[in-house]
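Lay summary. Proteins are chains of building blocks that fold into shapes, and those shapes determine what they do. In this project we predict the shape from the chain. Here is one chain we studied, written as its sequence of building blocks.
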Amino acid sequence: MRLKFLLLIIAINVSCFAQEKEYNSATVRINKFIEGTLITPYSDASVPLVVFIMDAGAINREGNDRMSKNDAFKLLSLQLAKQGIATYCFDKRLFKIDAYGIHENEISLDHFIEDVTSIVSYFKKNGNYSKITLAGHGQGSLVGMVAAKNDVDAFISIAGNAQAVDQIIIQQLEKQAPGLDKRAAAAFAALKEKGRAMDYDPALESIFGYNLQPFMKSWIQYVPAEEITALEIPILILQGDKDLQVEVSEAEKLKEAVPNASYVIIKNMNHVLREIKGSRLENHKSYNEHWLPIMPEVTSAITNFVKQ
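And here is the predicted shape, written in a compact code that computers can read:
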């Protein structure tokens, strides 16, 4: 009886060890601004690599900001490792600027694009990958599609807008705060024409604050539906129909711009890749419920696309 018990314990330990060995995780520093987690499946052969680019704001490598914890891209990376796909998720440079005395008003969207370009160059030189795919989430979709013009094998847009960000904001304000949309449009026009919006409604401070305007000015110069047409690589457009931040119509516009792109709309999926069948409250709560599984359709869509 004692022998059987010991054999059972050994079997359990071996099983747990095997599960832990499904992938290797390592911290990889690209430069002084960029550090992230590289998850690589155990394989004797070369595997594909997906580089995830996060949404707007101070989003870390796991997909979390300072106010929420959903671990969306940490969980997605682990699922992809089981499918034989390596991933690299990195903290945005916003986490490093204080250490180097860089102010918020000195950051532009072009810096984010340069960071992704540096990541691609690093893994081209320091890895043996069968292909490199950029996958951008939200704002990261635009960053990724611009960076994907060189030395990248494929591109994935996850919940990415097709219109320029100023148009998106104006449309959102028109629905949520009628009247404020016209004031925002005037402020955006001044930002484009004069480089600075001086006379804006105080209610728009979170958009046109002094420290934010340089970044916003760099962001509104890009129209995703135009940028994506410059790509001559396979493209996947991935969107959930319960996304509160990006409407399905934006995915449709991207598809219209690149008709040959793969196109997947996932039913009941929200912005953080979770299944939502109930209210908006359930949707909002999921942003801080890291124990919820990501939808398996996300993993399968990315796996099928990357391995095609």
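What the prediction tells us: The CA atoms of residues 53 and 136 lie 5 Å apart.
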